[in-house]
Structures are given as C-alpha cells and as structure tokens.
Amino acid sequence: MPQAGIDLTAPGHRHWRPLSPAARSVVSANHAATAEPGAQGFVNATQVFPFAEGALFHIYTAPGQVSDVALEAGESLISVAAGDTVRWVIGDTSSGAGESKRTHVLVKPFSAGLVTNVVITTDRRVYHLSLTSTVRTAMAAVSWTYPQDQLLSLKRAADAAAAAAPVSSGLDIDRLHFGYIVSGDKPDWRPLRAFDDGRQTFIEFPADIANGVAPPLFIVGADKQAELVNYHVRGRYYIVDRLFDAAELRFGLKHQDIVRISRTRDGGRLS
Q: To pair with 166 at 20 to 30 A between CA atoms, which of 26, 204, 227, 232?
C-alpha cells in the first residue's frame, strides 16, 4: 500500500505514469474549481466561503482536532459521502432550534498526509469538499455565504414591492373611463380590461404576464392601418401615454393571436 502523503503522480516516483489528456483535463478543471482558504475570508476562527455551485472547497485538518463544517441555518441534511471512511472520522450534529437550527458536519483524520473528498447533499444544495490532513494545521470551522440566494431574495422583494406599488400616481378617480371592449382571440395573455384617465391608457393583463409572452401593441388608425405605439410596462400593466379608439395586441408567426381593444364613446365612468 502506498505511504500516505506520497504523490504517485509526481515525476521521478517509481509508480509515476504520464497522465492522459483526459486525466489532465480533470486535474486542471478540479484545480480551477478549488476555493482555497484565505486570510480575508476568516471571521474569528471560521473560514467563510462564498458558495458557488460546482466549486470544490479545500479544508485543512489535523489528527486530534475536529473541523466543523456548518451548513446554512434551516438547511436540512440529506446525506454525507466520503471517499475514505477508514482513515477519517466523519459525523454530523446540530445546534439551535426552529428556523435557526443548523447542521454541522464534523471531520477528523487519523493521521497527517491524508487526502479525500466529501460530498454533502441537503434540501437546498450540494457541497463538494476537498480534505487535506496536515501535522498540526487545522481549520476550526467552515461556513458559507450564499450570494446567489441573496440576489434572488432581493429580486423577489423588489418584485413584490413593484407589484404592491400603484400603477400610476396622481390618478383622478372621478376621471377614470372604463368604457373599453376587449374582443378577438383568447390567448393566456388576453388583457382583463382597459381604462384611461383622460390622458393615459392603462391595459391590465393577468398576474403571470411577467413570466410569459409580452405581445406588442399596435394602434389602429382611421385608415384601418396598424402602427406600433410607444408604451411602458409597470407590473402587469401596459401604460400608453395617449388615448386611442382602437388598438390590437398581436403575437405569433404561423398562427397569430390578435386581441382588439376598442374604446366606447359613452359610459364607462365611475359614478
């Protein structure tokens, strides 16, 4: 059995063989994906890595010392798999309760000069760890920040704020005119209604319009010709900075869905 800590891939070793191009690609990819600990990443004795999908996080351990791998609060452990379960002790425990409960994977080598990998799967993500054991240098604890999740959380908060915001400020309720008829095809994006305030026209779509298609809007003139019109989108509304008698929403190539919006001359105002 080869001695621990001996690199069989090093030129000059009696077992050394040149790596194939495929093997060199694997080694190169793993090296490029490895996140090493750095002084700027420590908070007290905890190394805090920014999490990235597919990254390989390098952790230094030492015999006689336990290194704590702390997962995100509220994250549930599914499994822990290690390449070498004979010369490493790997277990898990937890701290806290409720939403602040955290899972901790604890690792300890039996001797120095060992290398193995660990894959941790949870209900949120997969962690890939590369473990190296040294004579006496060990990382006490490791945890992560989650930049991608934080960006998604900020986007959801921004979307919720935008959805809760009024479609337009300064609307005069008494001037609102709801006398519009929506006719034609019935695609999923068909508007629910249209109204104006005497200056702008508002076209209201189903709530999920932001996740689907956004059909272009055409104004139909007195000559029956359709022309593109400028408008801007606010949540699930198209806001047109003018009034019109007729407009059409068109979408599709081989089969084109056409929805017509017509303004009536009488009625339609709030009483």
A: 227
